[in-house]
Amino acid sequence: MSKRIAGPEIERLIQLLAKVPGLGPRSARRAALHLIKKKEALLIPLGSAMQEAADKVRVCSTCGNVDTSDPCMICTDSRRERATLIVVEDVSDLWALERAGSMNVRYHVLGGRLSPLDGIGPDDLNIATLVSRVTEGDIKEVILAVNATVEGQTTAHYITDQLAGLDVRITRLAHGVPVGGELDYLDEGTLAAALRARTSF
Predict the structure, then answer these.
(1) Looking at residue 55, what is its pLDDT?
(2) How far is Cα 135 from Cα 195, in angstroms, rounded to an integer?
């Protein structure tokens, strides 16, 4: 049995930090110690920011993004193209695409991917609301920006079946060699996808 080295408040802080993705017990202890040492500059403002986020952040009822308003800022932005909708698995994917800044469109967050082994079926994802948005709106293209995993591709096929018969073009992200990537370091699946999706030079 390990000895307790701090009071229950500090132990609770460490335990909660350890639940953050990317932080294990050791990293959580270091982060907690750093926050405590910088109490005025970090710990107190962080606690305040987290409480404010807990009070004000909500899930957008239109697209599934997180924001302090519902509908979110992306959905209410009139400068965004209305005819194209990018479908992503999670909010983190939406943020990644926004950082890339290559398209000024709207999004739809599924909230995960189909995974029968984990008990995640169509009713657990925002697929019905996606079909409603496409049916009722003026969307001409749906871009499936799901991960290139078995579950991601299963989800993409299911969505394609659900949108069949609607007047909408369905596309997906190209899979292949990343910018700056060296062939020797890529897995066989990525290389095969890159060959299938080859373009004119």
Answers:
(1) 96
(2) 35
